[in-house]
Amino acid sequence: MTTAFIAIDVQNDFCPGGALAVADGGAVVGAINALMRRFDHVILTQDWHPPDHLSFASQHEGRAAFDNIAMPYGAQTLWPDHCVQGGHGAEFHKKLEIWRAELIIRKGYRREIDSYSAFFENDHTTPTGLSGYLRERGFSHVVLAGLATDFCVAFSALDAVRCGFTCQVVMDATRAIDLDGSLAQATQTMQKAGVELCEVSNL
Q1: Cα of 12 vs its chain's centroid, Å
Q2: Which distant-in-sequence residues (6+ apart) come within 8 Å of 53 by Cβ?
């Protein structure tokens, strides 16, 4: 028992018709379901924001979605309201086989700080508890897929390596937002950090 598969934020608001829809985001569901069937240990992450979360553009007068502002923990992209706790947008895609997961990590529930990574809030110091869970269970390797490649998937992959795990990202089971070249930047950063970028056929 050394490998865990982690599906990142496969939620309605990141899929077609959602408040922060990732282009072709729904296409990952089938691939992720197939991957979950191949791994004995599956973890899901779930964006879980209060309605007044400070990453929402609606909470900053005169600001619009995708503006960048300075927060106490660093630069923050402002987003449309999305994945609000208890709302339809926060629910997992209806075709995702969520019953295969043995753990769901909710993130972004602190109003004052955003959380892209499955491992840490965006201050890079406040843990979600996932690293300790993986270590206690005896996992040393993680395989990631989901939404979006250049934000929550990439941040999770980088933190996985930072926490001492080896990591693969299944690129054809992810989709990107790609703001101003963010996909290329995230890809380069992951590769430089030692994350292996692969395809479903490579596993």
Answers
A1: 13
A2: 59, 81, 108, 111, 114
Instruction: Using DSSP, state whether 46 is helix, strand or coil.
Output: strand
For residue 107, indicate whether it is catalytic: yes
Average pLDDT, the chain: 97
Q: Would residue 152 show up in a list of annotated catalytic residues for this protein?
A: yes
How far is it, in rounded angstroms, from Cα 142 to Cα 134? 9
The one-letter amino acid at 104: I
- Active site includes 9? yes
Q: How do residues 124-170 score in pLDDT, each as one tens digit? A: 999 999 999 999 999 999 999 999 999 999 999 999 999 999 999 99
Q: Tell me how far apart the alpha carbons of residues 69 and 190 are, in angstroms, rounded to a whole number.
A: 24
Q: Which of 15, 83, 152, 167 is catalytic?
A: 152
